[in-house]
Amino acid sequence: xxxxxxxxxxxxxxxxxxxxxxxxxxxxxxxxxxxxxxxxxxxxxxxxxxxxxxxxxxxxxxxxxxxxxxxxxxxxxxxxxxxxxxxxxxxxxxxxxxxxxxxxxxxxxxxxxxxxxxxxxxxxxxxxxxxxxxxxxxxxxxxxxxxxxxxxxxxxxxxxxxxxxxxxxxx
Length: 171
Fold this sequence. Notes:
Order of helices and strands: HHHHHHHHHH
Oligomer: single chain
Radius of gyration: 16 Å
Helix content: over 70%
Shape: globular
Number of strands: 0
């Protein structure tokens, strides 16, 4: 399968096609690497479509994303990519164990994202979960997270409020 061609062939990016590409990517490290190349592409539409397939593939085979965690973290800081790339990077990062070497960079990026109300709500809520997960390792960030959430929760959208309240109960 040519992953790039498959991703660009479907003008509507159906869930069926995204899943088909994701399952193929899970068949080998080489196929997964090709999906990652599409995800990192400067082609706006290709990266957007690859992001959804990457999320599905990682859910199926989380061990395959390990060599690319640095890529996911760096995607969170980009402003020149489709929201889908950032959203799916954050979605994946909230669900996996992050190696220590990326903790500081990831915390900085996630705090920047949750504080920016111009960023899509899904990305911000995924970043809340990332910070909560990291706060189990670094309890010293719990206070900063708690203060931020208590001060801002009432001004946020429902999805953010719901996630914030759940996190506040647990820290």
